[in-house]
User: Which sequence fits this backbone?
């Protein structure tokens, strides 16, 4: 899990000043080790003093430039984790087409490294609760630092290029509701409700009643407090429980950003559950990150 990897990772200061000095033989060895992870990708890897390596006889689609030694060591320790960290703080610069670079990296990665959640990991009720606890129960204050005001954690929908993140998240929720053809008075069940923003939006803007579940104690506590503050307690019920324990009959089922955590071995279980929960003419929507 990401939280465990963060705890185990060495403390690196990606803003160190080692980039003002010439690279050493060890630096170049480290660069070569990193390049070999995706050695078939047409990418140039560059150190702060201009030293570079790339596959022979190809035109690179982009260059990855390391600004200092800490960034280089961070990638050597865990490139998947530290790619974003070093790029975000400017310790690594991407010169060229970022989309093309990421595509080529993905194509060059060994098949065994492409999945963030291996299919052999257990997805039973106990394991799922533990996984959610170590990922989402880090404290709501942490997530408030970098999510939008409503703490939506899934992909936004930008109706225009200049829309704000908050506007894009509301547009995403509206898009979900329109796809579900929600009508006032209907009953909706939501699996994996996060901090409750979609459930509250459906009740507030579309006049439905919602039963929403999640196994994260921190998220459910936050969602219940929001429902009380908005006077929606009678129309939105937040249940701290696993989605597999849901019961009842509903006009619509919705789940946003949970399928990624369900696991291939539980797809049939989820499908059967949806079939039991919705009425004969009920509707369902799953919003998730695509899987290759």
Assistant:
């Amino acid at each position: 899990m990401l939280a465990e990897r963060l705890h185990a990772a060495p403390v690196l200061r990606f803003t160190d000043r080692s980039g003002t000095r010439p690279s050493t033989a060890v630096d170049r060895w480290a660069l070569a080790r990193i390049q070999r992870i995706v050695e078939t990708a047409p990418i140039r890897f560059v150190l702060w003093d201009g030293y570079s390596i790339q596959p022979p006889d190809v035109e690179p689609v982009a260059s990855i430039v390391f600004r200092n030694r800490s960034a280089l060591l961070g990638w050597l320790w865990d490139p998947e984790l530290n790619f974003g960290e070093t790029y975000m703080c400017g310790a690594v610069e991407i010169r060229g087409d970022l989309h093309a670079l990421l595509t080529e990296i993905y194509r060059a990665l060994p098949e065994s490294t492409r999945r963030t959640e291996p299919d052999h990991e257990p997805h039973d009720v106990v394991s799922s609760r533990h996984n959610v606890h170590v990922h989402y129960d880090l404290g709501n204050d942490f997530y408030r630092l970098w999510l939008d005001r409503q703490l939506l954690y899934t992909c936004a929908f930008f109706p225009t290029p200049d829309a704000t993140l908050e506007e894009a998240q509301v547009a995403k929720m509206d898009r979900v509701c329109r796809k579900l053809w929600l009508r006032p008075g209907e009953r909706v069940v939501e699996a994996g409700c996060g901090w409750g923003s979609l459930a509250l939006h459906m009740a507030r803007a579309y006049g439905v009643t919602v039963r929403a579940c999640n196994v994260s104690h921190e998220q459910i506590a936050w969602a219940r407090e929001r429902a009380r503050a908005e006077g929606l307690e009678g129309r939105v019920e937040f249940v701290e429980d696993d989605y597999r324990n849901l019961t009842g009959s509903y006009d619509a089922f919705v789940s946003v950003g949970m399928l990624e955590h369900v696991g291939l071995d539980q797809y049939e279980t989820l499908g059967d559950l949806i079939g039991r929960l919705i009425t004969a003419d009920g509707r369902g929507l799953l919003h998730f990150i695509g899987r290759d």
Observations:
- The CA atoms of residues 213 and 239 lie 5 Å apart.
- The mean pLDDT is 87.
- The longest strand covers residues 278-287.
